[in-house]
Amino acid sequence: MALASGTPSALVDWNNNYGEDPDKCVIFHCSNLPKDVFVESSIRPEDIPVMDYQAIIAGTVGKDNTYGTVVGRVKKGPFTYCRVSTDDLNGLITAYIGEGDMTNDPLDTFGGVGVARIPDLQGLLQYICENGFEHHAAVNLSQVANPVEEAMSKYLEWDTYRHS
Q: Of 11, 65, 94, 124, which has the most beta carbons under 10 Å away?
């Protein structure tokens, strides 16, 4: 995705549904996201990215041992998501890919966070669970699903699901 878009990608968790909208979810990571995915200015100062302590691991190893994560809000706009996994028992590589939009919906939490809107999100989540994919996915703030899907399925010959 980075090569197709010319911008950095980030690794996030599919976290929780967002409110009552079945097509929205929270994306989250304790945060090693690149600066380019974060808002640069905001009405809410807490959305602007800052270097901080890693809130979850600090409870185990101590706050002073976790400095270096970036806390902030992911920018609003179109994005592509993708997950590539190995099926070690069968020697296969499988993937899924699709597009959606990051929103400006309010969110009060920590880490690198955003709210994503994906058409038929519940269908995507069902596919992820039924096919044993991990709960992390790569995101890129561009719409490059077409060339990335072509590269994975046509040239690399990976079993690739396109969510649309």
A: 124
Per the CB < 8 A criterion, the answer to whether 95 and 161 are in contact is yes
The long-range contacts involving 153-160, CB below 8 angstroms and separated by at least 24 positions, are 156/93, 158/84, 158/92, 158/93, 158/94, 158/95, 159/92, 159/93, 159/94, 159/95, 160/94, 160/95, 160/96, 160/97
pLDDT, tens digit (0-9, with 9 covering 90-100), for 64-115: 888 778 888 999 999 999 999 998 898 999 999 999 999 999 988 888 899 9
Q: Which residue range(s) make up the domain with 117?
A: 2-162
Q: Kindly report the number of other CB atoms within 10 A of residue 36's CB atom.
A: 13
| Kind plus residue range of the DSSP H or E element containing 73 | strand 67-73
Q: Find the CATH number of the domain harbouring 115.
A: 3.20.14.10
What's this model's pTM, rounded to 2 decimal places? 0.90
